[in-house]
Amino acid sequence: YISADSSFLKGELIGVSTATWFILAILSPIIHQIYVLVCWRAELYYKRISNAYGANGFQLYKLGFAMLIFSSILTNILLAFSSSNTLGLNKILAYSLAGICFILAAYLFYSVKKYFGMDRAFGLDHFKPEEMKNEPFVKKGIFKYTSNGMYIYGFLILYVPGLLLLSKAALLVALFNHIYIWVHYYFTELPDMKYIYKENIKQRSGKTKISE
Fold first, then answer.
1. Residue 17, φ and ψ in degrees, nearest 5
2. Where would I find the H helices in 117-167?
3. Residue 11 CB: number of other CB atoms within 10 A?
4. Greatest CA separation found in the chain?
5. Which residues pair with 17 in a beta bridge?
6. What is the mean pLDDT of residues 30-52?
7. Largest CB tally within 10 Å, which of 13, 64, 104, 168?
C-alpha cells in the first residue's frame, strides 16, 4: 500500500523526511515493548532489577517506561505534522472522530488513575508480586465495561494526531500500535498475570480474563 500510494510518505519536518519519521514512529513501540518484556521477566522470575538497584529499581524502570511511551507519542505527532493533509477525509468527520478517540482515552486514563493506580499500570505487580497477588480485579470506571480497557481505549489517543492533521502515515502507525499491543498482551502480560494472580484466578471459578 505504501509503495503504491505516492502521497503516503510525502513531506518533511525540520529537514527530516516523512519516511524517516515513519520508521522512527514504528521503532519506538517495538523498542518499548521489548524493554517491558525484558524488565518484567527479569524482575518477576529473577529479581534482577531489585537486586541491582534495590528500592530504586521500580522507579528507574518507570523512568525508562515513561521515556519510551513518550517517544512513541512524540514520533507519531511529528510524523503527523510531516505528512499532514495526505488523507482525503472530510475535516468535520476527522475532527469528530478525533474528539471521540480523545474522550474515550481520557476516560480510560481517569479510570486508571482513580481506580487502578498508576504504579500498578506501570507493572508494580512484577516487582511486588507477593503484595499484589491478592489485589482484587478492578471493575470500576471504564473497567466496569471491559477488562482490557487499557488496550482497547488507551491507544485511541494515538489516532488523534493523524485525524487532526489528516495524515495517512500517522494513522497507520496508530493502527500498528493498537495491533502490536495485543501481541504484548497475549505473549507477555497475560502469561505473567496468570502466574502472579493464579490463586486469585482460581477463586474466580477458573476465569482467566485478566483486568489490567
1. -70, 155
2. 118-122, 124-127, 129-132, 149-152, 159-164
3. 19
4. 58
5. 12
6. 95
7. 168
Q: What is the pLDDT of residue 131?
A: 81
Phi-psi region of 11 (alpha: psi -120 to 50; beta: other; left: phi over 0): left
Q: Which amino acid is at 197?
A: Y
Q: What is the pLDDT of residue 210?
A: 41
Q: Rounded to an integer, what distance in angstroms lies between the CA atom of residue 113 and that of residue 48?
A: 28
In the numeric block, the cell 501481541 is attached to 183
Q: How far is it, in rounded angstroms, from Cα 207 to Cα 53?
A: 36
Q: Whole-angstrom Cα distance, residue 166 to residue 160? A: 10
Looking at the chain, the whole-number percentage of residues with pLDDT higher than 70 is 91
**pLDDT above 70 (res 24):** yes
Show the CA angle centred on residue 13, arms to residues 10 and 15, nearest 5°: 105
CA dihedral 44, 49, 52, 53 (to 10 degrees): -120
* Mean local confidence (pLDDT), 106-134: 88
